[in-house]
Amino acid sequence: MLRWFLVSILSLTVLLLALFGAGWIWIDHKDLAAFATAKLEKKLDRTVHIGALHVHPGTWLTIEADDVSIANIASGTRPQMVTLGHLGAQIRLTSLIWGPPETRNVVISKFSGLFERTPAHLPNWRFGPHQNEPRPPLSPEERAKANAAPDLHDAPGLRNATILDSDVTYRSANGASYKATLEKVELASTSDTSPFTMTLAGAYNGTPVNISAEMEPIRELRKTPQRPYGTRAHVTSGDMTSDFTGTLTDPMDFDGVEGHTTVTTPTSDTLFSVAGMKGDHAPVKLTLSGDFSHSGDNWHFRKANGTIQTSTMEDGDFTLVEGSHGKPDDVTAKIGFGRLDINGLMPILAPSGSKGSKKSPSTTHADLLLLTPPDPDPLVHFDLAARQLIYNKLDFANLKIQAAQIPNRIDVPVLRLGYVGASLSANGHIEADGKSSRIAAEVALTHGDIDRLRRVAGLAPVPVQGTLSLRITASANNVHTLNEAMSRADLTAAVSMEKGEIAREIVEAASMDLRLLFRHAKGVTPITCLLGVLQMHQGIGVVVPLRLRTGAGTIAAKANFDLNRRWLDLVFASRPFSTSFFALDVPVRVSGRFDAPILSLAKWSKEGRTMLADSNEVTNLPPVLQGFAASNACARPTR
After folding, report:
1. Per-residue CA distances from 389 to 191, 419, 426 (Å)
2. Which residues partner with 308 through β-bridges?
3. Cα–Cα dist 612/572, whole Å
4. Which end of the chain is more exposed for a tag (fewer CB within 10 A), N or C?
5. Using one digit for the tens of pLDDT, what is the confidence trace for 25-43?
6. Where is the stretch described as Disordered (predicted)?
7. Contact 364, 341 (CB under 8 A)
8. DSSP 624
9. Model pTM above 0.90
10. Is 270:238 a contact under the CB 8 Å cutoff?
């Protein structure tokens, strides 16, 4: 019995070995393409093509696949979603039993993947029988589950892998494409406990990129997402270099990212190219560093600091929230500058081919575009502050601005800055007007020193000291840029004297006081009130009434001016009831260029007499200015 049992066991063993050997030989020579194709088509509900698939048994199981493709959805932009020229890999046979799998000599060549959303927002990476049917938006719980990081505790060990001549493209529902070209990618590790390295040579949307990275061992990768996976990466593209040191909880999807990053470039050519800004731009020197994070739909860059041209960013906080189901992205930026030089930033802010290009860097002339797209993507909300702001020849202090871009409109609820000692605040909005824009704004200026404002305006010295307050309403239609809006704006403004004084000699001279023939008036007299009302259209305007009341007399005036020609025509006269017995009260006219006006008697010309008659006119103000002007004692017409 024992002998029979031993013979039976031996016979069974021989039979099994014979069957295993026959199967081994059969598998080694069998093309499994048809078998794998049928399985994949059933699972994916897509047409699948595999030109050849071979499995070679051994201590290291070898897999070879050629000419593989998976069809795209019916409304896709190309027939195949995925194509693959060749795949080769070896898997340690015993690792398939005891796990985790261990691979080596992985080679992927001529892989091309297109991941896109159709205009109906259908993703082509959705498989199964209902893949072409629209689905309702995911609930927050479903969305969180879909975005959850995968469990990588069974991630295969990878000794070495090479990807050649491949590309991956993402195409959005609105047709924007983002293509990563992988000319050569190499991944390697000597064991699951040694560092995992990667080198990449490729391009992003046609812009060459090289990346070298050293990551923690694959053993640590298997602990994600419970434990973040440490990574250091160095990126070069043209003259731009960038470094990242941090962690990821979902390395396969570049998610759960936390780390510090730096970017340095002397020209920003790479950044212009990646942003799709083709053409000729002046160099923009950039050095920026900060803390970067990405989780799900949220991208965050905080504690940003560095230099952009001659501007110095001291603290920046940028947040991007990706839109879902056809909604635009949303960007929020809070930025603090020490110095913000708009002139130096014009290569970024100006369109290609405008002044300030590489061909004519010396002609840089700051002029900001004021366009409001009907469907902006992203929507932008920003809060910006700067201790110094330079725009063309203007030098401002303590800038504070809040703005938001929404469809067909940009709102600016807060704008504050200082200029030559004065405080300026404003609010307004920009609205779409066909292919141009229309603008409306309200502006207030306080503590405006007359002499300092006179000097920056290029006016001749005036014998008046004190500070002014202004209220302005402005509008401009059919404009495209800030400078165009400033030159073509319609303004209504009221100016009031807060406190001040005027040379007594001027008041007596304005009233033609006969005592000036025998003495020289000395000293100053306080200004009781001053009020001027301005109406301007495209740089040409009128100031009426313009009234000045002092202890030595009251003066009423009217002024016409042209900022484009830097020309004025001013008529003023003292009011008889307010001056001394010796005053002749003869009206005077000042006319000519700002810096060289000519003095004459107002009644010597018809224009002067007409202006004199208008000098006591009461101007109708818009409601926003009425309260400001009414509080001024000079608002009442003079006799």
Report:
1. 56, 10, 16
2. 286, 311
3. 7
4. N
5. 545 567 888 888 888 888 8
6. 122-158
7. no
8. H
9. no
10. yes
